[in-house]
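Homework help thread (please don't just give me the answer)

Our assignment gives two proteins as sequence + structure token strings and asks us to describe the second one. The first is just a warm-up. Here they are:
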Amino acid sequence: MLVKLAKWLDLIKTELKEDPKILIYDQEKEVTFFLEEILEPYKVEIISVERLEFSKEDLFQLVVLVGRGGEDLSFLLNKVREFYEESKVCVVLNFLKEEDIARYFDLGADEVVFKPFTINELKARLAKLFKEYYLDKKIKRFLIEDPLTGVYNRRFFEEKLREEAYKALRQRHPLSLMMLDLDNFKWYNDNLGHQEGDALLKLVGETLLNSVRAGVDLVFRYGGDEFVILLPYTTKEQAVQVAERIKKNWEIYNIPNVKISIGIAQLEDKGDLEKSIENMLATADALMYSEKKANKNLI
């Protein structure tokens, strides 16, 4: 069972690029002790608290709620589900014949464990929960990510664009959009082959991700060799600085005749969400093609 547990923890680290982390509400610390003993070889961070404080900034693969006596964990479970939507949740209860565990599953628990339990049982439950977390994340990424470049796909862009634009207009904070296109990509792809072309697109994706704020800015593949970046809380002037950083980072690779053309626009309130979005897209697109034309004249 330890082999299976190690496998899923390793996949979370290597493929999801996440550091395994557990939040446990445990007033008596008994379950905390067992978790620390089981997970110590795998460098899993365990945060054990007697009072839960919630923050959407935190990322936990697993949240464990340990009931004391006949404690009702319904309220805490509701809050955990509100703040940690992606986390797997395990409820640990004292064995009571009259306990209705169905309500915990109805409230969003992924597993219910009764005390007393064996170490092997706890290991098996942990392996199952980390496996489910990993698979859920992989499926979600498959749906929203571009498999070649590792950035988000166009379908997810259309969803996030409306979400971020609505939020920016309502809360009156700036939102900028950047459209990017590779100059001479067709020539590069036709002459060096599709494999080299794919490698180049992957390199663009890496460059863009390394040039923006992780967890804030959103990078998408718009189609072919076109990319889009959404920059929340960013003015056009600030976005220009990001664009300069992208170009500087791209120039490091010194790829002959392959430049990145960029058009930038800031969201303006046109009295209607769709009109505001259309205006921002059209402005960025026009500026990108203007720069692309200028770059061709320089080659």
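The one we have to describe:
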Amino acid sequence: MATLYQERSNNVWRTVFLMSVFLIIVIAIGYFIGWYFDSPGILYIAVGFAVVMNFWSYWFSDKTVLALTGARPATREEFFDLYTVTENLSIAAGIPMPKLYVLDDPAPNAFATGRNEKHAVVCATTGLLSMMTRPELEGVIGHELSHIKNRDILVMTVAVVLAGFLAIISDMFIRMSFWGGRDSDNERANIIFMVVGLVAVILAPIAAQLIQMAISRRREYLADTSGALLTRYPEGLASALGKIGSYSQPMRHASHATAHLFIGDPFGVKAGNWINNLFATHPPVEERIKRLLGQES
């Protein structure tokens, strides 16, 4: 299990690095826009607006996602295995048992959401529950409980909101720039700074999306390894991922707004070329399985 511990540590530090870069980009873009319009207050407004958006999205994340997916509560009587597996693993993880929901969909998948351990939700599709053995179900639930314990809902909420926020302020800047900005008469340094800043503002939304996707993939790797450490049986999750990855049909109500929450890509398996992988919310299933089984190159 030493390899899994090292994998978990590596993914934690990579996430910290990516989030730091993300925040630097937001502050830099806000600073440039404030400089361009000769109004430093724009930076403070931008940061304040981002904080408010983050808080709102984080606080109401469970209700929003459940409404978007159309999930329904799962009872112990109807979904006994799901209930008992989640109950046992929650005790092992040292966290309160999350509320359980089921999504009527033949595609095998699952997700976790909620603002903290006391307000968490785990949801599985009916397709996943009918397809998985108990060890495989334990692997999936261990993965989802790890998302809760690792506060991935908070991390990804921040990432998604910052990416959307950068896209909004970049669009606003481009529109407002037609009305004029800072006067840079014969100031070569100002002209260079302005050109670099304009290019950065235009490219910022693309860079933000790439970083958001990279963070999402890192959190999936982290939840895989943390879940395997929780169940002490990485083969169960590896087998479950194999079944999820082999199901190529998309979910009935797949949405880009919630895609990053699921254990598998809700849009189905895509061709594994480098461009798709770069913009993917999930790492390749084959790579995830190799890492779980200690077979990565």
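TA reply:
I won't write it for you, but here's a hint about the kind of observation we're looking for: The radius of gyration is 21 Å.
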